[in-house]
Write a structure and sequence with these properties.
By secondary structure, the chain is an all-alpha fold. The chain has 17 helices and no strands.
Length: 333
């Protein structure tokens, strides 16, 4: 499915490291500089160039659409998915996303594995419909049972390592490693997380840290944060406040909310020595950045800050209550 595949490739693309905006204040640490969205804007423009292009109503495409429609109406599940592709992309007929999804669903319900895989992704990512992780997992399981690799990857992302059976964990790791070996960078951190959560000895924790480091070297924000945390607590690597501060600093520059919080925590506690990338930012500013993005540790710290008047802020029961309420209503992880 040309358009869906393109949008999927964007949705699964490796995270971009935030670059400091050129309008930042002189001497300001890059972790506090506004996120530069030029790379994201370019990506959105490429997606729009595909999804917004005019329908191709050339005679060949119209004829191909007619053939696919007749086969689809006759019950050919592969043709039904092909018809969904053509409706989604505006090939041989005006673009019609709703009709395309309807034909995709019909193909999936008819037992066609690739359609089941795409429908699982559509529900998981909310492409053309509301996100429904239960239905996303259901259709991904259907496709995975037929050996569709894409469905296996989507299904792996549904498995939380601490809640899944050993068989499900093994399935997730198998497909995450398959995609990691094929260059899909976000899989590196996922593998590290799952291995770290289930590690039983130091050798397994070192293996997990190695995957975190691969993600961090690719500038994946979550990987940067997990490398920093591993150094902070000595998990899979010797404990080092200096190394932890440096990696948290990079995670904060990459706009990782947990990274911003970790960076603030070590700066507040005076751990790790001087910063590397610029003058040390005020911990309060970092906590505020992370809290506004939903980081619970940062919100908890702000409650205490405004209850007690810490980090250069005046005590404010009203602001403490505001952050306490935001913390209470934060979605469960």
């Amino acid at each position: 499915m040309k358009t869906i595949l393109f949008v999927l490739s964007v949705a699964l693309a490796q995270p971009l490291l935030a670059q400091p905006a050129s309008t930042g204040e002189p001497g300001q640490h890059p972790a506090l500089v506004e996120f530069d969205t030029k790379g994201l804007d370019d990506m959105r423009a490429r997606v729009q160039a595909v999804t917004g292009r005019p329908a191709d109503l050339s005679p060949d495409k119209v004829a191909a659409f007619g053939m696919a429609r007749r086969a689809a109406e006759g019950g050919d599940t592969a043709a039904q998915l092909e018809l969904a592709q053509m409706l989604h992309g505006g090939e041989g007929a005006p673009r019609d996303f709703d009709a395309g999804l309807a034909w995709m669903r019909k193909s999936a319900e008819g037992g066609y594995g690739p359609a089941q895989a795409f429908l699982g992704i559509a529900y998981t990512l909310g492409q053309g419909m509301a996100i429904d992780r239960k239905l996303g997992e259901y259709w991904s399981r259907k496709g995975a049972a037929q050996g569709v690799e894409l469905a296996n990857y989507t299904l792996a992302m549904h498995y939380e390592s601490i809640r899944s059976s050993p068989e499900e964990q093994a399935h997730a790791l198998h497909w995450l490693k398959f995609y990691a070996e094929n260059g899909f960078i976000p899989a590196y951190n996922e593998i590290g997380y799952r291995l770290m959560m289930t590690a039983k000895d130091e050798a397994q924790r070192k293996e997990a840290f190695g995957w975190y480091m691969q993600a961090a070297k690719a500038l994946d924000p979550s990987g940067l944060n997990n490398v920093a945390y591993s150094y902070e607590v000595g998990q899979g690597v010797p404990q080092s406040d200096e190394a932890a501060l440096g990696w948290y600093e990079m995670a904060a520059i990459a706009k990782s909310p947990p990274g911003q919080t970790g960076f603030a925590r070590l700066l507040e506690q005076g751990r790790g020595g001087p910063t590397r990338q610029g003058p040390a930012p005020p911990p309060f500013a970092l906590y505020l950045l992370a809290a506004t993005q939903g980081d619970e540790e940062a919100m908890q710290r702000l409650v205490k800050v405004f209850e007690n008047g810490e980090l250069g802020q005046q005590a404010s029961p009203m602001r403490a209550a505001l952050w306490r309420e935001k913390l209470r209503s934060a979605p469960a992880p």
